[in-house]
Q: What sequence folds into this?
């Protein structure tokens, strides 16, 4: 009798343990806080550096996947947003005195504090010791890259930096390629490697985060550059407000 009683008790204990275990497995796992901290959903400007790669006037003539005016405006927006947010900027050119030409002139005023690193012909900026040293000297782990060509001058250093453990973004519309096919192929290649595609206006907004800040008006001036129609929205609002003030007199 005791043997049967003991067997029943063992069986019941096993059933309870199995039920508890099944319920525990059914419960959703707690978020990995360490993973969330190392891979934040939005860009942390305090951990970011903007790398502008080979935005040279000669290379612009080969770009076919985006209009040159739009490309230049997006680069300026990126540079100005970083300047407002005090995010360090590093610019570079493969061979400033070669046929690819000098950097676009707008960067002198858009990013007056940017650090320029001339290269000695290296196609990938990451193959240039001085450039990599400049990046490492910032102490930042989030790299925001844009350049011409996307498939080469952006893709190569992006892949190399990712391999070294950096969190890498590439700004699709502040970069350019010789064809839409080259651009689409590169976006797919980099995304599969864990490099994050983003647009210039998204970077700007992730830097800004709120209109309740002293530099809100400075950020506001950048919106028409990346979205000309937004400039019309602001203009119509200002005109309407002016009309109301006139009518109230």
A:
């Amino acid at each position: 009798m005791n043997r049967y009683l003991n067997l029943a008790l063992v069986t019941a204990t096993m059933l309870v343990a199995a039920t508890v275990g099944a319920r525990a497995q059914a419960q959703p796992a707690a978020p990995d806080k360490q993973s969330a901290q190392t891979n934040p959903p939005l860009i942390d400007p305090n951990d970011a550096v903007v790398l502008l790669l080979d935005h040279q006037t000669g290379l612009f003539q080969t770009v076919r996947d985006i209009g040159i005016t739009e490309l230049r405006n997006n680069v300026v927006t990126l540079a100005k947003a970083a300047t407002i947010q005090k995010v360090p900027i590093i610019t570079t050119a493969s061979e400033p005195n070669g046929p690819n030409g000098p950097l676009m002139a707008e960067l002198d005023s858009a990013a007056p504090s940017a650090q320029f690193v001339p290269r000695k012909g290296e196609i990938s900026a990451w193959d240039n010791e001085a450039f990599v040293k400049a990046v490492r000297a910032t102490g930042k782990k989030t790299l925001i890259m844009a350049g011409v060509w996307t498939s080469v001058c952006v893709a190569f250093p992006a892949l190399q930096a990712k391999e070294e453990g950096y969190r890498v973004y590439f700004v699709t519309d502040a970069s350019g390629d010789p064809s839409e096919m080259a651009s689409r192929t590169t976006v797919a290649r980099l995304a599969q490697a864990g490099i994050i595609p983003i647009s210039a206006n998204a970077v700007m907004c992730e830097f800004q985060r709120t209109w309740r800040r002293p530099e809100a008006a400075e950020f506001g001036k950048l919106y028409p550059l990346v979205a000309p129609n937004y400039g019309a929205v602001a203009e119509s609002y200002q005109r309407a407000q002016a009309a109301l003030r006139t009518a109230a007199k």
